[in-house]
Amino acid sequence: MKLDIFCLGILLERNYSGYEIHKVINTTLAHLRQASFGALYPALNRLQAKEFISSEAITEDHLNDGLGKKVFAITDKGRAHFKAEIKKITAAEVVNSDFLSALHFSNNLTPIEVSTLVDERLADLQKEQRRLLRLPTKEVSEGQRFAIRYTLSQISAAVTFLKGEGRAIQTLMSKQH
Amino acid sequence: MKLDIFCLGILLERNYSGYEIHKVINTTLAHLRQASFGALYPALNRLQAKEFISSEAITEDHLNDGLGKKVFAITDKGRAHFKAEIKKITAAEVVNSDFLSALHFSNNLTPIEVSTLVDERLADLQKEQRRLLRLPTKEVSEGQRFAIRYTLSQISAAVTFLKGEGRAIQTLMSKQH
DNA sequence: TTAGGCATGTAAGGCGTTACATGATTAA
DNA sequence: TTAATCATGTAACGCCTTACATGCCTAA
The pTM is what? Predict the structure, then answer.
């Protein structure tokens, strides 16, 4: 899902400034995707150029140079565009895992490097698990709860696997050396 | 992990042509990443320019225009580069799920569209599960087995979740309409 | 007063995909 | 002979990250 469309989806809920959208994506929606400012601001400007969103300047200064806080609202045209685009999404997922690739080639790593990698991944997973568990479950849609629970089940399986087999690989790797 | 480095890792095992590397990545290593020809051939040419790999022409014709089958072999310089690069990999993973994003915003979809999406994802997961189970477990390194088993455990958890809660969401979505 | 968060934006570059272009070999 | 698979490559474009540039507001 392109960032442009993702932003429209967020603005469906309520109005946001660009800075706020960045925060929402990278904190409460971090299980779906990430977004940097360098991608986000041009995306919002494209959406506005296509009249999918409208903006209202909040701070009075810098109106000419485009700076100062702006709050965006989705337009009817934007809502229609979002509904059309989300229907095009298929179940196909793109895989690209540095962690698994490193482990696949792990006979080029020392047992210590492997176990560090596994431990770091475990720590990241548990941090993400805590984040998701802190998220509000009231006042969110069924679909939002679904995405959270799905991710939690994936994390849970990964943690279990790494705690079990992750420990075992360190012993096995040691024997190869 | 950049495609260049990934290719070096594959060539560590044995010599391959570009076409064969493409096949290996997109079939037996599909749980790690994908690669298109448009990315692969320039990557191999870059690696050769840096003397990380060497090539031997197999077919005698088209030697001048760069066409005709070539088989690549990793050099000592390439081996050293790979070992240095794989050590740099951290446990951080990038998330970007169209499937989950669509479900997050699924109040803009009909119950039928949601259930189609879930069913397609389930079919994809089960197809991938069968592929991984058919993969040889002998003659592969401990790390390779680890990556396969990790992915299988993730798929297994996803299938269980979608079969259980995935059915439930269809009922819940219907009530919202 | 200074560090950190709020706020917007541009420029360069990285890494990839899709589509196109070409041609050989092999099995039905 | 024809379709599929083998085989290599380029060009255009998409979408993103990192780094840079600027400046305000607020609480310790």
Answer: 0.94
